[in-house]
Amino acid sequence: MIAHSIAKEINDNYWIAMSAYGISNIYTYTHNGSEAIKYAEIGVDQFRLINRQPQINYAMLSLAGAYSNGGSLDKAIILSTQLIDSAKKCNDSYLDVEARRTAGLAYLKMKRISDAFHLFHDIVRSDQAEISDSLYLLLTYIRLGDMDSALDLSKRCSNLSNGIGNWMKCEIYEAMDSIPQAMNSLKKMNSETDSILRNILTQNITGTVSEFYDYEQSVREAELKNTRIIIWYSAVIIVIFLIIGLVYAARYRKKQEERINRNIEIAENLREMIAINNKDAKSRIQSLLAERFDILDNLCQILYEKNNSSVAKKQVSKEIDSLIEQLSKDEKKLQELSDYIDTHYDGIMTKLKTDFPNMLDMDYRLFLYSILGFSNSAIAMFLGEEKITAVYARRKRLKNKFRTKNTKYKEDYLNIIS
Question: Three-class SS of residue 289?
């Protein structure tokens, strides 16, 4: 009832239907026919609103049962017949048997024995049959006067000693005019019925209500506990994310500092290259840096004068980043440098390409940067290597390649790369 009330408050058709379906079944079990019908109809209507299958079919099955128990036998048969057709369309054998059973019981109550016989006969032949189905079929044999089939079936029924079994024995003995045996079976049936009735009448309704309130209290306590657990887990997750964020930020900052420091090394390398007392070398550097030469020269001077201040470092690092981008990815600029070196170093780059036509681009650029006088730290940045040891390893492999090549320019190559 509480679930049904909440579902209506939030206008959730699915749970209005589900809770009504459950309430209807409870009223059916407690023999409250009119209430069972009321809630079964709500269940069917709500499932139809959301067009939810197979729930519609099974809600209709529940309603058909409620109609049968409540005395609306015609309605029960109409619904059950519709469900038998639906079961065939969706190939649902369980629904088919349940619908036939509901219709069969309604036919028995209406004393339409022949119709009930056909339905229970089909059910007993299926793999969904229950013991009660055989007993209801047995009853139809008796009512139709086919005692031979009734007696034969009774021998094959495993349990005729209680409940509906005593009823069937009573019917058989009555049909055979065995009145004492019929009365004996009837007494047993009445005794069982009285026992069930006494159990129902002696139920502690007050205790049940008290248990319900205790249950509600336990539910509230469980919800409070769950809320606390959720808050605790949320707090833990937030702390974990904060720690991850701090670790990431620390790593990012450390990586940035390492990059700035490496850029400063390149800047110092450039400063040394600029400071060389060699007009030809300085001319090469000016050509290399082009429009950035004056900017970097001034920034390096600021860095020197301000004793490596953080602001100056960041300014220098920013310019170095632009330079790295230019010297590592700008194909046009790299080709200009290669042509410039060819002009001033007796065509060394052309000779290299001729002698080593399949040389890797990374090796070719390492050779180029080495001629220009860049340090290993600078070259590592230009090549996109994380560690300077990668430059040493590449330089070593390149030396071995030059040594094993039979070319008259071998010594020139080795002198440059060394």
Answer: helix
